[in-house]
Design a protein that fits this description.
The complex is a heterodimer of chains A (150) and B (163). With 150 residues, chain A is α+β, with helices and mostly antiparallel strands. Chain A has helices at 13-21, 24-29, 61-79; strands at residues 32-36, 39-44, 51-53, 58-59, 87-95, 104-113, 117-125, 134-141. In chain A, a hairpin with a 3-residue loop joins β6 (104-113) and β7. A six-stranded antiparallel sheet of chain B has the order 1-2-6-7-8-5, covered by helices on one side. Chain B has a two-stranded antiparallel ribbon with strand order 3-4. Classes of the chains: A alpha+beta (150), B alpha+beta (163). The interface between A and B is large, with 45 and 43 residues.
């Protein structure tokens, strides 16, 4: 990870958590940031209001998607010198398993970072990291100091 | 989108539980999703603007994830408006294209059309807009598995063996 400028003053857990808390929808669903060994993992603690299928029960697919999208954006904030939040251009979500009513975790990897666009892959899991419940592949528009995007 | 004069095959069932279509879903309720209209294979759902769903605090633009939740949910309702027998459904995949930022302060409408049903899979397209459906905020394409819980009883996915 490069030393961040602009949106983050320091690349540590509390700076990133307070940044995430400023995103109202991330705070609404309850995204928590965990920074360990220079790697970012996000946690979505289970809450009843995240349920999308009450009879199974399972988390709402939209919540899982929003969580993955938020993790992708936070990873981009960590890795690029951004002045503005990256904007999603498109995302593609594969739902692999039903999202149980328990805590969910996610990580994102920047597959390719161009001058204006980054391609990001993110995965969410619950009890077992080797059994992901959903994956996201997305393109994000970067608004960097040296780019015209945004 | 066509079929505006045809009714959903399960209209009696859906009509009787029209409000329950969204109110029974805790996260749809948390977002305040409102059912605007249903007709054959189509559904229209409104996401009221609310400060809690903002994604960019500088501009007040709604989070992409909230738009995705709307499109995922309205797509699922569209499937229920196309099927002839009640079954459970689960999103298999969903692709969202974000065309422009949602206008801060405006409610967002999602309209989804289930354009193809096979025995196992429903294919759905959706669009999210504020004022004009011809000027979309986002479009979606999704596939839904039908009979997703098979013969499983509620809660069966919670057993240790399935973890």
């Amino acid at each position: 990870m490069s030393a961040p400028t602009g949106l983050l003053s320091k690349l540590d857990q509390s700076s990133l958590q307070s940044f995430a808390d400023q995103i109202p929808y991330a705070k609404f669903i309850g995204v928590e940031v965990q920074m360990a060994g220079g790697e970012l993992t996000c946690k979505l603690p289970f809450k009843d209001m995240l349920i999308g299928n009450p009879s199974l029960p399972a988390l709402h697919g939209g919540v899982v998607s929003a969580f993955l999208e938020t993790v992708a954006i936070l990873q981009l904030i960590c890795d690029i010198e951004a002045d503005h939040l990256p904007k999603p251009i498109n995302i593609s979500i594969d739902y692999l398993r039903s999202a149980k009513p328990v805590n969910t975790y996610a990580r994102a990897v920047i597959t390719k970072q161009g001058r204006r666009v980054a391609n990001v892959h993110a995965e969410a899991w619950q009890a077992d990291k080797t059994r992901p419940i959903a994956t996201l592949q997305g393109h994000f528009l970067l608004a960097r100091r040296d780019a015209a995007g945004g | 989108m066509t079929d505006e004069t045809r009714m959903p095959p399960l209209l009696d069932l859906l009509g009787a539980h029209r409000d329950l279509l969204l109110d029974a879903i805790p996260h749809a309720k948390a977002l305040g999703l409102e059912l605007v209209d249903i007709f054959y294979a189509n559904a229209v759902v409104k996401l009221p603007y609310n400060e809690q769903i903002i994604g960019n605090p500088e501009t007040g633009v709604v989070h992409g994830g909230a738009v995705t939740t709307l499109l995922d949910n309205v797509s699922g309702v569209a499937v229920f408006c196309a099927i002839e027998e009640l079954t459970s459904i689960a999103t298999l995949d969903l692709r969202i294209d974000y065309m422009r930022a949602a206008t801060p302060g405006k409610d967002i409408t999602g309209h989804a059309h289930c354009y193809k049903l096979t025995r196992n899979v429903a294919f759905v397209r959706g669009v999210a807009y504020d004022d004009d459906i011809e000027d979309p905020i986002a479009t979606s394409a999704g596939a839904f598995m039908m009979g997703s819980d098979g013969t499983r009883k509620p809660g069966a996915n919670l057993s240790e063996a399935k973890l």
